[in-house]
User: Which sequence fits this backbone?
């Protein structure tokens, strides 16, 4: 399951801003199902109180 989400590297200033804003919008949407799509299936979630 290799899905590309443009913009892709190498980034210009403008495409880097687009990529960051897309990530921010995903988190700010507060929809856990959409947020989870941004991570690989083997990602390990942790509580923010944990320090690694």
Assistant:
């Amino acid at each position: 399951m290799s899905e590309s989400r443009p913009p892709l590297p190498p980034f210009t200033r403008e495409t880097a801003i687009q990529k960051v804003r897309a990530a921010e919008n995903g988190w700010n949407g507060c929809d856990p199902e959409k947020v989870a799509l941004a991570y690989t299936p083997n990602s390990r979630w942790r509580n923010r109180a944990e320090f690694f």
